[in-house]
Each structure stands twice: as structure tokens, then as C-alpha cells.
């Protein structure tokens, strides 16, 4: 039986029910942005060579136009728009290819490709950043030790990300490390290309998640219909339980579905090993082993969970009252709920960090403004998620606020504060 759950007086407010989940998502996002800012501050070149063609890597985001500091603003804007359009088209094509492969059950190939991608990012891109840090701080390490260290780090990272047997903290740490490495590479893009690319990706994320035929929407619908985990890298916050819920496993699988729920006796004085009375009816509150499957009432089974931001699914276990009498369906809804942690796509970590990393190339005041804007946008998205009860993209609000606050701080607030400080004006 499937139906909507009616709110009752036992339900807390939105912030009470999502407080721990919000902290569980914002904490790794903040750590990721902080470490990217530190990396950019340590490894950024001289200001005169930040946007020079020699220091800009040729990537999928710079295939059409390679920005030069001597170019006029109109040319920079046109070239940046072309770069963003080409990059978004490539991302959409790869996503649709992913959907096609998953539709025809090439899950083994997709898992192998994700493992190879994670190993490549950790070994090659992460190794390059590690060696840059060694050169920056004049550290010495022989080649065999460096290769052995890098291989161990990469292999353990791949096993930790894709194996459910490792502690969830280790898996979360490697997911954040992946996002830091990719974001550090994206901060090497030219300035105009970076801002147009961020806005273009926010618009694409909005369409891919909310449109009925969006690629991410189709991918999640397929995964939900097959009761399988999504073939993607997704950060999952540690699941939490409310005061009226049964806690789930501390080491959840990567699937977006619920953990199996088990019946719990409501009578604290009852013996868990006692047998039911022969006078009890078929509607008694203590279902036998063969009746457990028939005593589950699913409520709001959300099948539209997507990669960027996934709400917690809920389920209820139908149980009897403390005296063995059958209880109403409305009372059953208020007894137990189990929720999984909120899931956030790894791309959201990357592009949040790219924004603050680019701001770190200007000054720390801009970094603070962008960070507060991104966290505020993520908080608004999480609150909307709890109200709408369906999947929402995590990029549009945060990226839009971050870009707006970046330019407001850089063009308005920073000149005002610096001018007031140099004139010894205090407020």
C-alpha cells in the first residue's frame, strides 16, 4: 500500500529534521573549498602569468578559444561563451552515452570505467599536484618512494570508494580528495572562461535534473526501476536517525534505496523471545517471520533521486500497540521513520571549490563572500528539498549567488573598504 504521509504534531520543523543532514553535507563541502583555497594560494603563479597562454592547460574547456591577456574584452567574452557551450555539449553527450550504456545493462563496463577514472585522477592529476607541492616547499623524495607512495594512495582510494566494506569515513575522505584534485585543475582555466563555464553548468544542471527528458532524470529513473545503485560518484553523508526513528546500518551501501527495515517491539517490558498468544488474531502486533514482508507500508518512495542532490527516502514499519491491539494507519505513520543521508554529486563539490579557488586568486575578502554565498545557496536548496520532497539540482542557487557576490565584492565592496582603510575612516 502506497500513500502520502500526513503531517502530525509529532513531526518537528524542517530545520529540526534536516539539521544533522545539513551539517553532514556542508562540513565536507567547506573542507573541500578550504583545501582548494590553500592549494591555489600555495601553487598559484605570479599575477602577470595567471592568464597567459603558456600557463593555461589545453582541456575540453579551452578547445575553441585560448584566452590571452592582450585580447579585448569583447573577444574574451565571445571566446568564453564558445568554450562554455562546447564544454556543456560534451558533458551532455557523455551523460547521454552513460544513459545508453546503462539502459543496455553495460553496468560492468561502467563500473570498470569509474574505477579507472578514479585511479587516473588520483595517480596522474593528484601526483602532479603532489610533486608541485614538493617543489614549492623544497622537499626531497626519491623516485621509487614517490611512485610507491602514489600507487598505494591511488589503489587504496579506488578500493575505498567502490567497496562497501570500508568505513564510510574513509570513503568520504577519498571522495573529498577526488573533488579537491579535480577542482585544483579547473582553477587553471582562464578567468573569463571560468565564470561563463560555471554559469553554463548551473543552467545545464537545472535542465538535466528537472526536465522530464533530462539525462540525469532518465538515469535515475532507470536506476530506481531496476533497484540498483547509480553508476556515478556520489558523496553520501552519514545517515542519521530522528528521535522517532529506527537507526539504519552505519555502513550504508551506495544504493539510493532504503536499508532493510526490521520490526521493533513497542512494549519495553515485553520479552523478545516470547511466543505470541494463541488467542491473538491475525491482526496482532507481533508479526511472525513469514508475515514481516506483509507488514511494511511504504510512504513516499522517492524514485526521482538524482546525482546532484538526493533527499532522504522514508519508510514505515507497521506494528501493533503495546497491549497487542491493532492500531490505526494514521498512528502507524507517526511511530517510526528511517532516513538515509543526503547524497550530493561530486561535481557539485568540484565547481563550488572552483569558484572559491578562483576568488582566492584575487583576495581573501572575495573568498569569504563567495564561501558565504555558496553555503547560503546550499542551505536554501536543502530547505527546498525538504519542502518539495523531490530531487533538486545543487548548482544553480549556490553558483549564481557565488558569482554575483564575487563581482559585487571585487567591484564594489573591495574598493570601498580599501579606500576607507587608506583614508583612516572607521565605522
From TrEMBL:
Q: Which Pfam families match?
A: Presenilin
User: Any idea where this protein resides?
Assistant: Endoplasmic reticulum membrane; Golgi apparatus membrane
Q: What's the chief localization of this chain?
A: endoplasmic reticulum
Q: Signal peptide location in the record? A: none
Which keywords label this protein? Endoplasmic reticulum, Golgi apparatus, Hydrolase, Membrane, Notch signaling pathway, Protease, Transmembrane, Transmembrane helix
One GO MF term on file is: aspartic endopeptidase activity, intramembrane cleaving
Question: Record's InterPro entries?
Answer: Peptidase_A22A, Preselin/SPP, Presenilin_C
- Annotated transmembrane regions: 21-46, 80-104, 116-137, 143-162, 366-387, 394-413
> Which spans does this entry mark as compositional bias, Low complexity?
263-290
Query: What EC number(s) does the entry state?
Result: 3.4.23.-
Q: What are the GO cellular component annotations?
A: endoplasmic reticulum membrane; gamma-secretase complex; Golgi membrane; Golgi-associated vesicle
Task: Read off the domain note.
Answer: The PAL motif is required for normal active site conformation.
> Hey, which family's this protein in?
Belongs to the peptidase A22A family.
* Protein name, as recorded: Presenilin
